[in-house]
């Protein structure tokens, strides 16, 4: 069975349908980029995959033993979140909360996982620093380390490079690709279509009509060519 199987999903609010009859499946190790115009429903789909919003119709089936508390999530940051007065270690460790259940403290194993993911993101030296004092790129590494504390198989990323400079953006994409190479399945919302077609194995295009398929299939489709042209993306 697929890691994630979406069947005839319709999304929206009350009677306002944003996405209708969406179906696709992902296997372990896939790298899916969700693209489309603003307001097309990308973030609504992400919230639905996280069980933060119920679909109007359809089913979301999880396979390979995937549990809801095993999905890591990196949301878009607000200005208030960027000014959060906690240490890096505290924020990363909070990603293990779903592992604690009803236990009101972190175990030695959970602390080890947090330390391992800080090391993985190259931020071990920042563990005692206050989050609000870090640069935008450092903050994103902290939040990604936090998401990895929850992600055992699947990682959801909502515009992970928004507001970052080109150098830090390239570093972040390289980090995400390395995580995918290590076997973590990636679902990423991106306005950066050139990066989407460079890194993704699959593309989901949401808009007036829907497309789901491989990167190469998207590049050769009329929808993909038109969208790439409108965004200045390169087909290579």
Overview of this structure, please?
The protein has 236 residues and is of the alpha/beta class. It has 2 domains: 1-66 and 153-236, P-loop containing nucleotide triphosphate hydrolases (Rossmann fold, 3-Layer(aba) Sandwich), CATH 3.40.50.300; 77-151, no CATH class. 38% of the residues lie in helices and 24% in strands. The chain is built from 10 helices and 9 strands. The protein has helices at 42-49, 79-82, 88-93, 97-100, 108-120, 136-150, 166-181, 193-199, 215-220, 222-231; strands at 4-13, 16-26, 31-36, 57-62, 71-74, 154-158, 185-189, 202-206, 211-214. A 6-stranded mixed sheet has the order 5-6-7-3-8-9, sandwiched between helices. It has a 3-stranded antiparallel sheet with strand order 2-1-4, covered by helices on one side. A hairpin with a 4-residue loop joins strand 8 and strand 9 (211-214). Helix 5 crosses helix 6. It is globular and about 50 Å long. 34% of the residues are buried. The model has no long low-confidence stretch (mean pLDDT 89).
